[in-house]
Design a protein that fits this description.
This protein is mostly beta strands and 63 residues long. It has one helix spanning 34-37, and strands at residues 2-11, 14-19, 25-29, 45-51, 54-62. Helix content is 6%, strand content 59%. β4 (45-51) and β5 (54-62) form a beta hairpin.
Length: 63
């Protein structure tokens, strides 16, 4: 399932996100793709996918 979230904080190798629809906050791994990871900042909006209980940032929507 594709969803949008806002970056609340970057915590080393993890990113704290807030879902823009439900306002749930959670942490995910910082993406290993440098082109995505380098654009993640506090306040950025990202698209994440939730597949089989695992969440992963797929792209930055607004940085």
């Amino acid at each position: 399932m594709k969803k949008a979230a806002q970056v609340i904080a970057t915590l080393g190798g993890r990113v704290q996100l807030m879902d823009l629809e439900t306002y749930e906050t959670f942490e995910v791994e910082l993406p290993s793709e440098g082109s995505i990871a380098s654009r993640i900042r506090n306040g950025s909006e990202v698209e994440y996918w939730e597949v089989m209980g695992t969440r992963k940032i797929m792209r930055v929507l607004k940085s």
